[in-house]
Amino acid sequence: MVATAVTASFIPVVPSPDSGKGKQTQSGGGSASLRGLQPRNGLCGGLQVKANAHAPPKVNDTVKVEDDLPSSSPLTHAPRTFINQLPDWSMLLAAITTAFLAAEKQWMMLDWKPRRPDMLVDPFGIGKIVEDGLVFRQNFSIRSYEIGADKTASIETLMNHLQETALNHVKTAGLLGDGFGSTPEMCKKNLIWVVTKMQVVVDRYPKWGDVVQVDTWVSASGKNGMRRDWLVRDAQTGEILTRASSVWVMMNKVTRKLSKIPEEVRGEIGAYFVDSALVVEEDKRKLSKLDDSANFIRTGLSPRWSDLDVNQHVNNVKYIGWILESAPQPLLESHELCAMTLEYRRECGRNSVLDSLTDISGANVGSLADGGLFECKHLLRLEDGAEIVRGRTEWRPKSANNFGVVSQVSAEST
């Protein structure tokens, strides 16, 4: 009946003179009134539609169903036209649409699909091992909280990226035990890695929103050391931004004394050593010790709880921030650090109180406005005089744009 009503709403039907009357069907001496479907007046432009309801024929039943309807019946078919002879394409169109949507979803999930130049590539992943399984690669997006007043990433940001890739390299290679970068055999013997020397050369600092690609690998350094190198590039252009090299040795985390590399540990890490040239030419100049005659001294520095790593000593990146605490403000405003050499001599604990000393070689603060390169010597020591870190930094004038921004900020603050 519903189908009949729907058909009637689209196909004009001539109303029967007795459209308001119901038909009577006799069955077995009784009478049954079969009600017709009577839509409200005004439906479909005033057309009146009535359909007789018929029960399906039953086997061995005395009910007789009228086979032929009178010509005036409202169920009389309308003349066949071109429109009502067309097939129903809705199901086919729905199937085609579903197929296209499924194909589009699969296409969006593919990693090899073309990318726009402004799309970030793996900004949040832990990276992957490349170059025959010997080099680890990871991308980082420079965040707003990782830049300074000149809109470029800080040296601490770059150093944190280097440390993160080093740990993820060990993790991805399947060598991470329950320690901070320690292998399973190192964990059994209570051994941890400590850095003894770090060299960094910064060709250009990335800006907010840039994506950098960091490659790192390891090699042997003498009999009981390991060298780790890094190469930082612009992920979009491939331009080299930073080069860094470091030397690491093992220390017993219980006795806090240096240790040789056990053969079991060497068997774990030896397969990942790369025989490659130094990414940074080694600076063999001796780092002289500073004393109270240094140009600038900052005292009373102490680590916070958040400065400690899982090995319960101060993270080596924190030392860089403390070293720069004693650098003169005019130097930080007009110049940027372009090279750094650090020698780590002693670890620092949570209850330590430190002094930061800086000396500008062959120059004074008044000559900083003249531009040019400057070299500084640094010392981070405990209050009792025990040395923590010795360092040397090189500084170059900031670019005109950065210098203008910093100068404007300094003028407004004064």
Automatic annotation (TrEMBL):
Chain segments carrying region Disordered: 13-37
Domain Acyl-ACP-thioesterase N-terminal stretches: 1-122
**What EC number(s) does its UniProt record assign?**
3.1.2.-
An MF annotation (GO) of this entry:
acyl carrier activity
Q: Which major enzyme category is it?
A: hydrolase
Q: Keywords on this record?
A: Chloroplast, Fatty acid biosynthesis, Fatty acid metabolism, Hydrolase, Lipid biosynthesis, Lipid metabolism, Plastid, Transit peptide
The record, for Pfam families, names: Acyl-ACP_TE, Acyl-ACP_TE_C, Acyl-thio_N
- Name any GO cellular component annotation: chloroplast
Q: Which residues form the Acyl-ACP thioesterase N-terminal hotdog domain?
A: 133-268
All copies of the Acyl-ACP thioesterase-like C-terminal domain together span 295-396
Location(s), subcellular? Plastid, Chloroplast
Signal peptide start and end residues: none
Cross-referenced InterPro entries = Acyl-ACP-thioesterase_N, Acyl-ACP_TE_C, Acyl-ACP_thioesterase_NHD, FATA/B, HotDog_dom_sf
Q: Main location per UniProt?
A: plastid
Q: Which family does it belong to?
A: Belongs to the acyl-ACP thioesterase family.
Provide the function of this protein: Plays an essential role in chain termination during de novo fatty acid synthesis.
Q: What is this protein called?
A: Acyl-[acyl-carrier-protein] hydrolase
